[in-house]
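Q: Predict the assembly, please.
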Amino acid sequence: MDWTIWVEWVVKGFVLCLILLTGFAYLTLYERRALARMQVRVGPNRAGPEGLLQPIADAVKLIFKEEYTPSRVYKVVFVLAPVLTVVPSLVLAAVIPLGTKFNLFGREITLFVSNANVGVLYIMSIASIAVYGIVLAGWSSNNKYAMLGGIRSSAQMISYELALGLSFAAAIIMGNSMNLIDIVNAQKDLWFVVLQPVGALIFWIATLAEVNRAPFDMPEAEQELTAGYHAEYSGMKFALFFMAEYQKMIVICMIMATLFFGGYRELWFLKDTALSVDAVWTIGSWTFNAWFLGPVYLFLKVFILLFAMIWVRATWPRIRYDRLMSFGWKIMLPLSLAIVFITATGILLAQELNNQRYYWSIPVLSIISLVVAIAFINRDLRRKSHGRI
Amino acid sequence: MTSDLIVFLVLSLVAIATALGMLFSRNAVYSALFLVLNFVTVAVFYLLLGAPFIAMSQITVYAGAIMVLFLFVIMLLGVESISSPNALPWQRPLAAILSVILVVESVYLILSRAQPDMSIASPDASLNTMDSLREMAMSLFNNYLLPFEITSILLLVAMVGAIVLTKQEKGEQKS
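A: Predicted assembly structure:
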């Protein structure tokens, strides 16, 4: 094999890791500032202009903090668990296309690390592996609170993985491929969020549960579990868990943008203008592709989606644990099954009858099923206001 | 081709080591973790053979779902240390005999079937695309529809059985 391709892979992987690590550092600042604004506070603004050096200060503090390892822990697993949590969150990003391609030194450089044909399945499998780190952290701490946190989180992640997989399936059916680049290109004419808004909503809720974000941050509920699975961790090991959580937030927003919001592509009604990623720009005698718009669009989408995540955290209280489980199994799972069925039927109808209008049966029917699901939640909450849903 | 061979040899060592680790570790959680590693190496074997779909399914189903449930049960029941005193008396000899039979059988099959000059047919590179996935789905839902549906019914029955076992009778007191 050509050795240059190895160099290309290594450089790309390195750059991707660098993007995620920087993104993690600045996402913490972004979240703290945005939360502060929503709560009419100022937020961290001392280190550097507008607090821009705050992440670096935090990192220095965490690295030099004393790392304390309790004496009765299972040592190997205890050290391994934070690493096992971070690695999946980094490798998840490998299949996400960041843009089209450009030429450098006569070589065509594509803006993705891997063009895997089973990209969506890859994401599913890595996401399913990610639960190990948290479970093992809880178990190896040899602490009842940490253990409960780990078990809660594993149960939660398994439950919401089903709805997540089915909403992936809806995107696969609409994109007619498991390759993320094909899915992005299929959204040239219309974003899938317009065609399947309920699928995007289910994906959103399921990913919030997958990354243990509010309102599904049960595993680390401070009031009940002291700190959940990372109760015994300190210093950089503790920071690694947060690193994993925030990197997963970024990656998951990227996946969401790719599957439902057109990925690195422009808004669908801009597709033939100069703002398209396929456009060719001419400045004077210099002609070039507008490939650099791809990462910019993706960054903007991720930025907005991350804001929505922070907004959710600032707005909703934590959901009770039994309700969280029954919401996952009794509402999300049936609803996502219905979504997959509706999507497949709509596309089959439109293709068999050769009429584009049948595509619009997908959003209409999905929204009807969403309304039915909300009615069910309402009825259950009213009927048994003291019991379980 | 040599790089593939090196990767294969290293991975087989890892696979054997993790399998042995699973058998001999005293702690059930470590056993489960070794088994997870073993599943992952098997998935990489599938990748080497040019079957990414099976590799990813292997990781998702075995490492991601089944072993997480195993770990879950081990941790919930608190049976981390494996105790041996209440083993059945005839279990060890029976297991030894059965495993000897298995080893002899597989060695015989390997020696009789695999000729040294017969290279294992490596999968066509063109199959390693989205089309192969489509082909697989096509044959699954056209030629093998009945086995597929029977398998799914089997799983459904198992699921209903689990629910029935855990469901309390109407008159029964909640414990």
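Chain B has a mean pLDDT of 80. The helical segments of chain B are 2-24, 28-48, 52-77, 91-113, 130-142, 145-166.
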